[in-house]
Specification:
By secondary structure, the chain is of the alpha/beta class. It contains 10 helices and 11 strands. Helix 1 crosses helix 7 and helix 2 packs parallel to helix 4. The longest helix is centred in the C-terminal third of the chain and has 20 residues.
Length: 318
């Protein structure tokens, strides 16, 4: 297949590109040129603004297009306008922040917790534009970010069969060190780690970048995925305390983890979210319909995350 990937040079994209290339597909990556990504020789790179795709992106026409960076309704509408009638299949990345549970977690709306794990049919947020208040300026893309509107634009049409993949919290190189504040005490030999009690019992589905990329590969190469929405991530979502215990065991850390009220933590470490609302996915559908499974064993994923944090810590000290 000829597969065009829009974006795809940072966290998950390079793994998807490399995997597709290894399977013998003809892969073209279109991006802004800010990050070339670690992709194999033979993959064609095109640079430019995603709103003005060059002639080379369409010749020959791709069999499938993967959009890694559709953040706003405008992005989705522009994508449809550009590629309908040109390609047979599309894959677009979405997020678990579309779920109502996320809106309630963030305090954007109120109500009781939704049952977990969240299936693809779980209720969506009623509120919109979840990151508008924290956008650095009025013209920043975060002011218009809304994956619900992206999904609606893509699902409410038949001109371009599209598969949506709702990503989990992705771990891997360039993941902004999600567990930095909790892994650092372990790596520095502190014997006590205090964590906020509500957060300790909270569940949030994660996935290693290489594993999540496999879902993109399966969706891009399976035309039957058009019109489908899939959650992707680990098959079981542990609590955050359970997750940190796994890290502690892998690091052979002899200290203890204590769950404490937020008031006993430094103000900078207190989290104000309502952790009774879990973002724990049911990933049964993608596993049964597309045959998705992790490509990296869980124990190796834990070890790799520790190694990345250790390497980043060493860089911090330079």
């Amino acid at each position: 297949m000829r597969i065009l990937i829009l974006g795809g040079t940072t966290l998950t994209g390079p793994y998807a590109v490399g995997r597709l290339h290894s399977l013998g597909h003809e892969v073209t990556v279109f991006h802004r040129g800010e990050h070339e990504g670690d992709v194999p020789a033979g993959v064609r790179h095109l640079h430019g603004d995603i709103g003005h795709l060059p002639h080379e992106a369409f010749h020959p026409a791709p069999d499938a297009v993967v959009h890694m960076w559709a953040m706003t309704e405008t992005d989705a509408v522009s994508f449809l306008y550009t590629f309908r009638g040109l390609t047979r299949h599309a894959v677009v990345i979405s997020s678990g922040d579309v779920y109502r549970a996320y809106g309630r977690l963030m305090g954007l709306e109120s109500g009781p917790p939704d049952p977990i794990p969240l299936t693809e049919n779980a209720p969506l947020r009623e509120s919109r534009y979840p990151y508008r208040k924290i956008a650095p300026n009025p013209s920043h893309w975060m002011t218009q970010y809304e994956k619900i509107l992206v999904e609606q634009a893509l699902m409410n049409q038949t001109d371009l069969p599209t598969c949506l993949i709702r990503f989990p919290a992705v771990m891997g190189p360039k993941d902004h060190r999600r567990f930095h504040r909790w892994l650092q005490p372990m790596l520095h030999g502190h014997m006590e780690l205090r964590i906020q009690e509500g957060w300790a019992r909270w569940r949030w589905t994660h996935g290693l970048a290489e594993d999540v990329a496999e879902a993109v590969v399966l969706a891009a190469t399976n035309l039957a995925s058009g019109g489908r929405i899939y959650n992707v991530g680990e098959s079981h979502t542990p609590t955050m305390a359970e997750r940190l215990t796994e890290f502690a065991l892998a690091a052979a850390w002899p200290g203890q983890i204590f769950e404490v009220p937020a008031t006993e933590l430094p103000e900078s470490d207190r989290m104000v979210y309502d952790f009774s609302h879990h973002i724990a996915y049911d990933t049964t559908l993608i596993r049964t319909e597309l045959g998705y499974k992790e490509v990296v064993p869980h124990e190796i994923a834990i070890t790799r995350t520790l190694e990345l944090e250790t390497a980043a810590d060493l860089m911090d000290r330079v």
